[in-house]
Every structure is written in structure tokens, then in C-alpha cells.
Amino acid sequence: MSSVLAVAAATWGVLMALAPLLQVRAMIRARSSRDVSIGYLAVLLVGFALWFAYGASIGNVAIVITNVVALVMGAGTIGCAWYLRRRPARPLPVPSNAVR
């Protein structure tokens, strides 16, 4: 039972680590990251780094893998947010049936 729980937890950990893809998709779709807190993401990134270091120090592969994925995704999300803030904002296209 313990090994089944370990596999389930590790799998869910990787899915959680991939969850920022949803935020990246929303930022790209809106062409803006103004509603995203980069500070919050940075705090999470430090946490992922600490958990990675802990997992590595005790030799726990599940903790290491999930937090490596989380680190990469977190850094990518922060990079996307910074990129979108540094470039000039472009207005979203107005639908042709919109009232003006």
C-alpha cells in the first residue's frame, strides 16, 4: 500500500508542478501578465529549490523529480511574466460585431 501511495503522490506532484502551464496559457492569451504576482511566484520558486535540496540530501527521488519539474515550470512562468511586462502592451483585437 505504501508504494502505491508513493507513486500516486509523486505523480500528483508532477501534475502540480505542471499546473503553471495554465497560468502561462492565460498570460499568453491575454498578452499580459499584469494580474500575476511575480513576487508570489518567486516565493514558490525558493520553496521548490529548498524541497529539491532536501530531497537530494536524503536521496528521495520522488521529491527531487517533482521539485525539479516545479523549478523549471516556476522559472518559465516568471520568465513569461517578465517578458510580457517588458514589451509594449498591444490591445486585444475588437470583434467585428462589437458595439463602438
Give structural attributes.
single chain; 100 residues; mainly alpha; Monooxygenase; 4 helices
What does this structure look like?
This protein has a domain at 18-86: Monooxygenase (Up-down Bundle), CATH 1.20.1280. Helix content is 75%, strand content 0%. The protein is built from four helices and no strands.
Architecture blueprint of SSEs:
Layout: H1 2-18, H2 20-30, H3 38-58, H4 61-86
Helix pairs in contact: 1-4, 2-4, 3-4
Which outline best applies? elongated
Radius of gyration: 18 Å
Low-confidence stretches: none
Q: Report the helical percentage.
A: over 70%
Mean pLDDT: 89
| CATH class value of the domain at 18-86 | Mainly Alpha
> How many alpha or pi helices?
4
The fraction of residues in strands falls at under 5%
Q: Provide the CATH topology of the domain at 18-86.
A: Monooxygenase
CATH architecture verdict of the domain at 18-86: Up-down Bundle
> Mind describing the biggest β-sheet?
none
Task: Tell me briefly what this model is.
By secondary structure, the protein is mostly helical. The chain has 4 helices and no strands.
